[in-house]
Design brief:
Elements (H helix, E strand, L loop, with lengths): L14 E5 L8 E8 L4 E2 L1 E10 L2 E3 L40 H7 L2 H11 L5 E6 L4 H19 L6 E6 L15 H8 L1 E5 L17 E11 L5 E7 L1 H4 E10 L4 E7 L3 E5 H5 L4 E12 L4 E13 L6 E8 L12 H8 L8 E6 L7 H25 L6 E6 L14 H7 L1 E7 L1
Parallel strand pairs: 3-15, 4-16, 6-7, 17-18
Antiparallel strand pairs: 1-2, 2-10, 4-9, 5-8, 6-8, 10-13, 11-12, 11-14, 14-15, 16-19, 17-19
Helix pairs in contact: 2-3, 4-9, 7-8
């Protein structure tokens, strides 16, 4: 049978489980489901327009640029090129999305290179520190000194200022939760400019994002290759739950224990080197009363390798903390840049994400709102162009760290996780 690429989940078998905890004698319902794609892509070639976050984050107690950023010597500037950033890798990479972080950690070199090539471009560097405006100013001056000393940028083209909080702070008035993480993200130097040569297409004003960088990479285990296991009601009823997955030959793999109600993993992590297989999936829940609940279903999985000449395009929209409606500034970009790149009969996969700050359920809702905001703009643009040939898939993954684009160790990773990723599939 011919295999067609499809990221639609086709296995959605739901069981309604009732059990009575001995301690409470209360009836609790657990809904267990497994969602798997028809075909599981192993990897895919991606041409990505990667957004350049215009922030440089500083460590607490220091006004020096952290050494995770790539800092060049003056004699290296002549060899620096945006499309060859692998020649200047950062010292420390998290292991996830290394190519994208390689772009971001070169932000000062990208800025210096662009200013060198566009001698009329100017920037404002705004340092923010809870220790006071004076320290914020010192942080900004540190960045300025690097651009002057290494790239030879004239000092008159770089203005600096200090603030206690950045113009767009993460910490909100009255907030009481996870303030350490929020304040870590607010200790930064923001790069502002009104020079079009430095800015994202169709953006204007001092707070406009910097022009993105285009990169080409091979993406292993793309989002639609993941199998999801859902235990609705499990957080309330179970102290933990785990998975037992057995193939048709009786070989068993165990995963867990888990505390969240949803867990996702690449289908290849189950299939391994097999091209396809039939599996019995058993969910084993440990109740808070000490009992055990088991429910199972079956799923068929098939690995699939896209044609070598097929190249996916990826765009990303970055949101500020706790925002779902900050998309208006990108509307023209999505309409006039992204939509023309969607081929006839193509598919658009829109995935919303958040960082780990905040409640899990709230972040799931927020990520879906972000994704649907983007879908609405794209659909309206397509309709205006008289197009009805495009298929959509919209996901909200919340803070799911198995599916988030980046880790959450550093503030820049958390900022990049506040995103909607738009994949255009031929």
């Amino acid at each position: 049978m011919k295999k067609f690429y499809n990221c639609l989940p086709v296995v959605m078998i739901v069981f309604l489980v009732a059990f009575i905890p001995i301690a409470t004698m209360a009836l609790t319902y657990i809904r267990f489901s497994v969602t798997a794609p028809i075909n599981i892509p192993v990897e895919r070639r991606v041409r990505e327009v990667f957004p350049l976050r215009n922030y440089v984050f500083f460590s607490l107690g220091s006004t020096e640029i952290p050494d995770r950023y790539v800092l060049l010597r003056k004699d290296q500037v002549k060899d620096f090129k945006e499309d060859m950033l692998e020649l200047f890798p950062p010292k420390y990479l998290s292991g996830r999305s290394e190519r994208q972080m390689m772009v971001y950690y070169n932000i000062l070199n990208i800025l210096g290179d662009r200013m060198e090539k566009n001698p009329s471009a100017t920037v404002m560097l705004t340092g923010a520190s809870m220790e006071g405006t004076e320290e914020g100013k010192v942080m900004a001056e540190t960045v300025k000194r690097y651009l002057i000393d290494v790239f030879g940028i004239d000092a008159s083209r770089i203005n600096t200022e200090g603030r206690v909080k950045p113009r767009i702070p993460s910490e909100q008035p009255g907030g009481t939760k996870e303030l350490d993480l929020l304040r870590e993200g607010d200790r930064r130097v923001s790069i502002w400019s009104t020079s079009p040569a430095l800015l994202m297409e169709f953006q204007t004003g001092a707070d406009a994002p910097l022009k993105p960088v285009e990169i080409i990479a091979v993406q292993a285990a793309p989002v639609e290759s993941y199998v999801s296991f859902n235990v609705l009601g499990g957080k309330k009823a179970f102290s933990s739950w785990s998975l037992e997955i057995m193939d048709e030959k009786g070989k068993v793999q165990n995963f867990g224990p888990y505390a969240n109600e949803k867990v996702s993993m690449p289908g290849k992590s189950i299939l391994g080197s097999r091209s396809e297989g039939d599996y019995k999936v058993t969910m084993i829940g440990q109740t808070k009363g000490g009992n055990s609940v088991r429910k199972d279903t079956t799923v068929h999985m098939v690995l699939w390798t896209p044609p070598k000449d097929q190249e996916m395009m990826r765009f990303s929209i970055i949101f500020e903390f706790n925002e779902s409606k900050a998309i208006s500034m990108y509307k023209k970009y999505l309409t006039e840049v992204l939509i023309p790149k969607i081929p006839k009969g193509g598919m658009v996969i829109i995935s919303g994400h958040t960082d780990v700050i905040g409640e899990e359920a709230y972040n799931m809702k927020l990520s879906l709102e972000r994704a649907n905001d983007v879908r609405t703009i794209i659909e309206k643009g397509l309709s205006k162009a008289g197009r009805t040939d495009v298929k959509f898939k919209v996901y909200g993954f919340g803070e799911d760290e198995n599916l988030s684009p980046f880790e959450n160790k550093f503030p820049e990773e958390r900022f990049y996780n506040r995103t909607v990723i738009i994949d255009i599939i031929p």
